[in-house]
Amino acid sequence: MSSEQQGDRPRREPRDGGTSRRPRRMSAPKAMRSAAQQLEELLGRPPESISALRPTDDGWEAEVEVLELERIPETTSVLASYRVTLDAEGELMAYERVRRYTRGQIDRRT
Description:
The structure is a single chain. By secondary structure, the protein is mainly β. It contains one helix and four strands. Strands 1-2-3-4 form a four-stranded antiparallel β-sheet. Strand 2 (59-69) and strand 3 (78-87) form a beta hairpin. The chain starts with 27 loop residues before the first helix and ends in an 8-residue tail after the last strand.
């Protein structure tokens, strides 16, 4: 009986020499910094905060809060929430503004 018939088949290497693995996902703190820095470069405004960060199959998705219009008093300043999509290496793939609100506004419970 041959070794293949006994279930002792030789292991095959991937055709690309073992480099077909997906890139390792960056850590959450690095993803947060990357989302904030890259969005600031695009918008020309510094982020106020990161309000959410979640892993996706391909990288990360973050909600970034940005001051869009500064007013006096501060509670009337206009902020925006942006959804930022990063790949596994932390490169910005997409962003969109999903909400505008005044600083003093409180979300209603649903």
